[in-house]
Amino acid sequence: MIFKEKEIREYLNRLYNEPVIFEAVEDIGRGAHGKGYRIVFTVGGKQKRLVLKGLEGDRGLGHDYPSDRAAVFILAKESYKFLPKHVGAIDVGIIRKDGTIGSMGDFEDFFLLMDEAEGSDYFGDLRLMKDKEILDELDRKRIMAMVRYLAEIHSVKKDSADLYWRKLRDTIGHGECLMGVLDTYRDVKFTDLSEMAEIEKKCVEWRKRLKPFYSRCCQIHGDFHPGNILFKEGDNFILLDRSRGMFGEPADDVTALTINYIFMSVMAHGELRAPYDEALELFYDEYVYLTGDKDIFYVVAPFYAFRGVVIANPLFYPDVSNENRKKIFNFIHGVLDTDRFDLKDINRYLRL
Q1: Which of 60, 71, 72, 122 is nearest to 313 (CA)?
Q2: How wide is the angle at C-alpha 259 spanned by C-alphas 257 and 261, nearest 5°?
Q3: Global pTM value
Q4: Do the beta carbons of residue 62 and residue 34 sit within 8 Å?
Q5: Of 39, 90, 166, 205, which residue is least crowded by CB atoms under 10 Å?
Q6: Distance CA 244, CA 74 (A)
């Protein structure tokens, strides 16, 4: 997706209904799902720095048709504003076949225009943990801040079996989730089609098991992983990329973050080891204390399975060894094969 400066300038003039002083458009890189550009301009005497985000349809993940990509951006435009601490979404625009920007009636593709967020993503904190024996004060403060945030948003309940069941269904069958991610596995050495089908079958059984839990339906972020959590100073953070619906199972957010304590420890040490185990235990202890949700350990399995196939995927994490990818798949089987997730059994899961 390539944008022309002239077209961006004219689009901004129409969007703000007044002339803008265009300063720069900068390529800010490619992520797992698409590409982003920073746009710097002045309007009404104030400088603005926005991000223009596009998705790519040639990578699978349920983004194959323009309508798929439009749905992602329309949901983002609708949902970002309802979540505390989330970056703002400003507009959904369309790109014509000739590269110009225009109205919905003549589209080739879509993009999202949103505010730029400043800060360092939480992956940086996770990388630094490998050289520590215990968590330091800042580590603990940031974990507590994230737990408090999730406890707050998860306290907003939604009486909807339909939305809860949709979250279960999407987690297993959506193009961006477990089945869609597994479809991007090509020519890998550590697994095969039979094992991937086995994981899918186990997750379908978990869906049946969790359907009666629809009273747990609540407000969620939907993609609460370290790359979408940007810390500034201390424990102050802002969020990116709320995804795949505004309501669902709180385990979706809990697992999106906590699997990374396991993943980064496996990457550094080959198993769950200090201080990553301390971080994981602190998170769960405080989350259960603040929410009273003692059932969380009985519902995380299919969500950990989804997050597991993400972190083991060569498309997203090309530098992971096949040995460690296999350990992550062992972990997936371990959590799917037990009724209750147990923090003390994680290394056993990894060695299955």
Answers
A1: 60
A2: 85
A3: 0.82
A4: no
A5: 205
A6: 11
User: Which pLDDT score, from 0 to 100, does residue 36 have?
Assistant: 82
Please give the single-letter amino acid code of residue 233. Answer: E
Q: Are strands 109-115 and 229-231 parallel, antiparallel or unpaired?
A: unpaired
Quick: pLDDT tens for 28-59: 877 666 778 889 999 888 999 998 888 876 66
Q: Is the pLDDT of residue 215 over 80?
A: yes
Alpha carbon 47 to its chain's center: 30
Give the residue-averaged pLDDT of 154-159.
97
Amino acid identity of residue 309, one-letter, is V
CA-to-CA distance for 309 and 179, rounded, in angstroms?
Answer: 9
Predicted pLDDT of residue 184: 95
Exposed e or buried b per residue across 227-243, where buried means at least 16 C-beta atoms within 10 angstroms of its C-beta: ebbbbeeebebbbbbbb
> What is d(CA 9, CA 41) in angstroms, rounded to the nearest whole number?
9
Q: What is the 3-state secondary structure (H, E, C) of the chain?
A: CCCCHHHHHHHHHHHHCCCCEEEEEEEEEECCCEEEEEEEEEECCEEEEEEEEEECHHHCCCCCCHHHHHHHHHHHHHHHHHCCCECCEEEEEEECCCCCEECHHHCCEEEEEEECCCCEECHHHHHHHHHCCCCCHHHHHHHHHHHHHHHHHHCCECCCHHHHHHHHHHHHHCCCCHHHHHCCCCCCCCCCHHHHHHHHHHHHHHHHHHHHHHHHCEECCCCCCHHHEEECCCCCEEECCCCCCCEECCHHHHHHHHHHHHHHHHHHHCCCCCCHHHHHHHHHHHHHHHHCCHHHHHCCHHHHHHHHHHHCCCCCCCCCCHHHHHHHHHHHHHHHCCCCCCHHHHHHHHCC
Distance CA 223, CA 141 (A): 21
- Identify whether the C-beta of residue 209 lies closer than 8 Å to the C-beta of residue 336: no
Q: Structure tokens of 233?
A: 């100073």
**pLDDT digits 0-9 by tens, 110-155:** 888 889 999 999 999 999 999 999 999 999 999 999 999 999 999 9
150-164: average pLDDT? 97
